[in-house]
Design brief:
Length: 492
């Protein structure tokens, strides 16, 4: 029985490798005209992949092993996760699954086209169809549950609307007034404005940052895409992408630091559980906690730049007129803005709040989906106090809805909150500033490997936070972290 199970595991991993590789290729280097041919073949392969899980023999193996008390801890967890996964697909036919996969790929292409032409109308019919299909398929598997609650718990086991409402209410109560205070206070000058950063030099610098973070070409590669992302083909093939903007060197730098946070998690999973379902099931919140920890708690700290800023100054001579303190203040400027991925650490959770409210409304019917672009713009005005000049800077900015990842966004804010709690613990146990200053990022990676990475999804998100920090998730750490950091930065 166990051997048969292992055969299935291998077969599943082969399909996963093929599909992930093709997807990475599609998102980075594949020529525009290649999509139709590829999408059809990928649709076929995901159908075959789906067939494995609906295979009677496989379902029976899982059913039998579920009741086998002689299994070791790891195999037991694998069976538990497969069982959860099978429950998600049990009432959905192969045709429904395949056509949904195809719809997602076509929607991605429509989203890209709509962005290129700045025309939401190109994407809108696909988005509406994605919403309708998500609802239908979710109700088929969980007819008695609230659709959005099911989606939320798909991305973060244990979360629902009630818990997220509490979390986001705390953000509203504590962070919105702080943002208002900062807006009314003396602004920090952006010292980098007006400079040009040639792309070839930016690319060289990105390599310096990658080495500092210990992200090497033994197990990683950094490509270019519209929206930076990370993709694990295997434990030792944890890829990332970034993008380059001549007017903004920070865009590529912080995208890279963020994505390496994800990739390092993927790479540092223990060998015994690597590349299988336990590795695949890392929760979105835990995953995002690592990228946020890298990007914000560590990557925007003074100690990080005490080592890295002189190297940046050597690449771009004009930076020699800007002091380390001025640079560190600049990378931490807080100002309400339109694009989520460019948002500063403090206003970021409000971008997520907007998407959370929209998604909640889409699925409970309180938001008019025929009017989504306006609903979006209305909330941006309400929470961030700014007008949205075009859909490119509004509803067309994110990739996530184009692949039907409804329920995913809230995990970003949750990840930031986990990160603050983990960072607090890390500082108690190792001298983080000293390590950053002295080019010893490997020791930070090691701490994270022991506390979090090696376990992947061997435990639930709740247990992982408990194991790593010694207490259950507490959003107070996040709110206090933001309040302390930004009050001192802005002298308020
Ligand atoms: Zn991320």
């Amino acid at each position: 029985m166990i051997n048969k199970f292992k055969e299935y595991e291998f077969k599943i991993s082969a399909y996963e490798l093929a599909l992930t590789t093709m997807n990475f290729d599609a998102m980075t280097v594949a020529p525009k005209l290649s999509s139709e041919y590829r999408n059809e073949r990928m649709g076929y392969l995901s159908g075959e992949y789906y067939s494995i899980f609906t295979d009677k023999e496989f379902v029976e193996i899982i059913e039998n092993l579920k009741n086998d008390n002689s299994l070791d801890f790891i195999t037991k967890r694998k069976i538990e996760l497969y069982d959860q996964f099978l429950n998600k697909t049990k009432n959905i036919s192969k045709e429904e699954y395949t056509s949904f996969e195809k719809l997602k790929m076509d929607s991605y292409d429509a989203w890209e086209k709509a962005r290129k032409e700045n025309d939401y109308k190109i994407y809108e019919p696909f988005l509406l169809k994605l919403i309708e299909t998500s609802k239908k398929l979710t109700l088929k598997r969980e007819p008695n549950k609230d659709v959005y609650n099911v989606l939320l718990s798909d991305y973060e086991d244990g979360m629902d609307k009630e818990k997220y409402d509490k979390f986001f209410n705390l953000i509203k109560e504590e962070i919105v007034p702080l943002i208002k205070k900062i807006t009314d206070s003396k602004q920090i000058k952006n010292q980098l404005e007006g400079y040009k950063f040639p792309l070839n030099i930016q690319k060289e610098y990105v390599n310096d940052i990658l080495s500092y973070l210990r992200y090497t070409d033994d197990f990683g590669v950094c490509a270019t895409s519209i929206h930076p992302f990370s993709s694990r083909l295997s434990k030792n093939d944890a890829r990332i992408t970034t993008r380059y903007n001549e007017n903004d060197v920070l865009d590529s730098i912080f995208s890279v630091i963020h994505e390496v946070g994800h990739a390092m998690f993927e790479h540092q999973v223990a060998d015994e559980i690597a590349n299988g379902i336990i590795h695949n099931s890392i929760s979105m919140g835990t995953h995002e906690s690592q990228s946020r920890l890298f990007e914000n708690c560590l990557g925007r700290s003074k100690a990080f730049w005490e080592y890295n800023y002189p190297i940046l100054q050597n690449k771009f001579d004009f930076l020699k007129n800007i002091s380390l303190d001025e640079f560190v203040n600049t990378i931490n400027i807080s100002k309400p803005s339109l694009i989520r991925v460019d948002a500063d650490e403090l206003t970021y959770p409000l971008h997520i709040l907007i998407r959370y409210e929209l998604e909640k409304g889409i699925f409970d019917g309180s938001v008019d989906i025929k009017n989504l672009s306006n609903e979006w713009n209305k909330r941006v005005k309400e929470y961030l106090g700014i007008d949205v000049p075009s859909d490119l800077k509004g509803i067309l900015q994110d990739i996530h809805w184009s692949d039907a990842s409804f329920g995913y966004f809230p995990t970003y804010a949750l990840g930031s909150a986990y990160a603050a709690q983990i960072f607090n613990k890390m500082k108690q146990e190792i001298d983080v500033d000293c390590l950053l200053r002295n080019n010893k990022y490997d020791e930070i990676n090691n701490w994270l490997k022991e506390k979090i990475h090696k376990n992947a999804a061997l435990y639930s998100p709740k247990e992982i936070i408990l194991k790593a920090t010694g207490e259950e998730f507490n959003p107070r750490y996040y709110v206090d972290y933001l309040k302390n950091k930004f009050s001192s930065l802005y002298n308020i």
